[in-house]
TrEMBL record:
Gene coding for it: Fancc
UniProt-recorded name of the protein: FANCC protein
Domain of life: Eukaryota
Alphabetical list of InterPro entries matching this protein: FANCC (IPR000686)
A single GO cellular-component term on record: Fanconi anaemia nuclear complex
Gene Ontology BP terms: cellular response to oxidative stress; interstrand cross-link repair; nucleotide-excision repair
Organism ancestry: Eukaryota, Metazoa, Chordata, Craniata, Vertebrata
Amino acid sequence: MAQDTTVPKLNFEYWLDKAIQWGQATTLESQKDVCLHLPQLQEFLHQLYETIKHLGPTVAIQQFPLIGQLLGRLCWNPFVIGYDESQKTLMWCLCCLYSSEPQNAVELKANSWIRSLLCHLLSSSKWESNEAETSTFISALGYTSADYYCHLVKNMVASLVTELRENQFNGLNIQESISASRVNAVSIFCVPLITLPDLTPLLETLLLYHGGSSKEILSSEFLEAVNEAFLKKKISLSESAVFSLWLRHLPSLEKATLHLLDQLFSIRLNSLEEVARVIEDSLLPQAASHPVIFRIVNEIFKNALMETDGTSEVMTIIQVFTQLFVQAHQNENKQHKFPLKAYFPYHHQPLVRALVRRPSELPTTYWSQHVKHISDMLKALVEDTNVSSLTDLFEIWFLVACFGEWLDIAAEQLLKAAVEPDPVLWLLAFYYCPKNENQQRTQTMVEAQAVYSHLMMLFTCTDLSLEDLEAAVHRVTGIEQCCNQRFTTHLLTYFLLFSPGGHKIAQECIYRITEITDTSKEVYNLLIRTAYRFNHNGEENQRTVKLLNELLQKLTLK
């Protein structure tokens, strides 16, 4: 509410006259006079701030028509802004005059003028441009110009941070709390100066600040600018500040996710360790521990997969992200950990729990049993009459695809004869051909079973030639349906990796398949996924790892 204020009580005209007399304190006489009056001036500015902080810009200007002239002159006086808390008080007074929702050209112009004053107060480069006018004062203190303004910025930022934090704890005291419009104004004033290193504590305090308003109190321009600077690595922020930024401004989260995808598409996926490093550096897997962030990021990945027609590169990126998310979620403090249902609210929870189990959590002897359990649950879901739409089917498929590590383990267990074949063949057939229109999945199963049977007859042979695999290769290269071709290529590639005699002919065989079928990217992504799994779980022998590296190098050169 507006408060009754009398100008004489504040000696407004007196201090305006003084400000005009002083100018920018360029003469020795004016400098001495400023110094003599600084304590009283600071008291006056504090009273002025207490008077106008609840008025709103329009009422404040009505009561003090010349307030802009007074504050503007004082902001350019180096002795005034260098004294104690005068600079901070001037800043708060300017915030009180800022219109968060300007209604006309006059208010827009006033906002622009206020922003320029705040930039002047905060930017050391602008202060240093007035070095000739301030050198007397700075030299008297024994500082260089750069040192002086560096300390000035740090002190001002520290003061603002303290005030915002105290207000956060004192939010129920309405008379003492900072209004949302003034916090909004401060956020706008920070926009031109976001990359200033000394401003970082204030940026983080603003990002973590939550007033009593149900609406967002920080300006969208500020949130967008902070996100842009963070993504371009122009600033460093704490994880909590980044997570708060993405939670309170979802367009920034979307931009961060798309920025990550652009980064990964622009580099050659030489190893998934490199992919994992880039993804972890983005902080998105860690931020995804909050269910809202996870579901939004997951939705963006899903759209990217559909827009690229399900390319293996995008699927591999999603699978690595999911592994890193699971790791971050499991590392969360139990008191703050969300249940899995918060991340996958519409999915069959037993299936979710089975997929989330990391292979390293189970003995290798239990892998085959776990894979069969996943397949049985999935088949029951897919064949349920309630799953009638393609959308429902796609959602189930995407869930399984995100945890692709279990699919690769399923194919490995299948070829090592460590599992009952039919459930695993069905699981892989569903992954490569989720729709069963015109018996597509059934046909995929028939093709895969034929290739699998042929490979198993040769699995124990230690002396294999390409001619021995001719039938299997012919089946792979002769298949017209893409999903069938990818499935059987997966089986044949793993046969070459895990069979005793497959190593000798692996390069020649894979070269022939990828030349004829144009599946080099598919095979390459399968191999780097496998290498990544071996490096993390360490369950395979060095001979297989060496072959993997040779095959990857061959495909890279190709």
